[in-house]
Amino acid sequence: MPGKEHQWSRREFLKVVGIAGAGSVVGPFCRPANASEGSSEMPTRPFGSTGINVPILSFGGSLDTSLSMLVLRQAFKRGVTYWDTANTYMGGRSEKGIGKYLTKYPQDRQQIFLVTKSHALTLNELSMDLDLSLERMQTDYIDLYFLHSVRRTGQLDDEIKSWAEKKKAEGKIRLFGFSTHSNMAECMLGASKLGWIDGIMMRYNYRLMHSDDMRRAVDACTKAGIGLTAMKTQGGGQVKTNSETELKLAGRFTEEGLSDAQAKLKAVWENPNIASICSEMPNMTILMANVTAATDRTRLSSLDKALLQQYALETRSAYCAGCVQICESAVAGDIPIGDVMRYLMYARSYDNPHRGCTRFRKIPLNIRAQMAKADYYMAEGRCPQKMAIGKLMQDALKELA
Ligand code: SF4
After folding, report:
1. Which residue has the higher pLDDT, 246 or 176?
2. Please, what is the end-to-end C-alpha distance for the chain in angstroms?
3. 337-348 and 389-400 helices, crossing angle to 10°
């Protein structure tokens, strides 16, 4: 489809795709990209102090991209040229699908900001994972290589620093950083003091962005020149309609021609220090909804933002903020409470029980036995989100095991 689609109004687009996906826009802080065909209207932002500009919307590849050639092609044409994957996504099929795409369209490689990640625990494994990713994706280099799911700054030691420098010198990676789902603010603050982290991908959304810790972390990373990519920007899935606030919120966005999903993207883009939003876009409907949201010229009003914040407060007990240092230290054993909460979110809110179950089943049986018997009373007392941790752990054992 030609680039003219970017001219659709939010209302027109909603008529086509329904409330599940359309959108609007970008604030005055954005400027047009000048990159690829048909992408003239996708805004870009500097990725920290790397000297690289990235589109404000990036393609989250935690899916079998070999089945998504059309979506990848259209994403590229619409300026979504930042692609994120990991060596473990879909057992490697995500990286292989990108390799399939780059084999077919090798001329696109230079315009794509390609990111992948590894969970490796040793440097040797990290090197092997990197080489495998390069081979799978049919490329000589990765633009940004992430250590996956970092929980504490101690994981970013001098050995990792030397490894990253060596791989940069070999030309296998251009930039290095990490992704984080847990203790995000602490990890970001720690990274801002290291001086050798180029980029971070962290959970960040309308629920998390207002905490003092997260504000400080984003400011510190920005000052340190670290590029920031937001993930999990929907904050736990669709706005429900069980209360007056929820009805008011969903109704208000609908009247404005926005889905609540688009409004949540816009809330994140309001912060100019967030370079890009990584969004999983498995089909053309979601891709076009997000592209429309990125390229539309409207902004959320103060009331829109206030309502989102109020909704976040009223529904906080349904959303885990990832502050695992608070709850996990209050429970005996090695129970990964934050991870289990995330797996439940995949199954319940993101309508992806397969992902939730697959990840949950990697938890060793002895840890699951600890989960079943643990006393969560103290953890619940400390949880800032007031989550019913004990009940949710039992739910996970029943629903995901
Ligand atoms: S359960 Fe509560 S304390 Fe634990 S990570 Fe989630 S929000 Fe934080």
Report:
1. 176
2. 43
3. 60
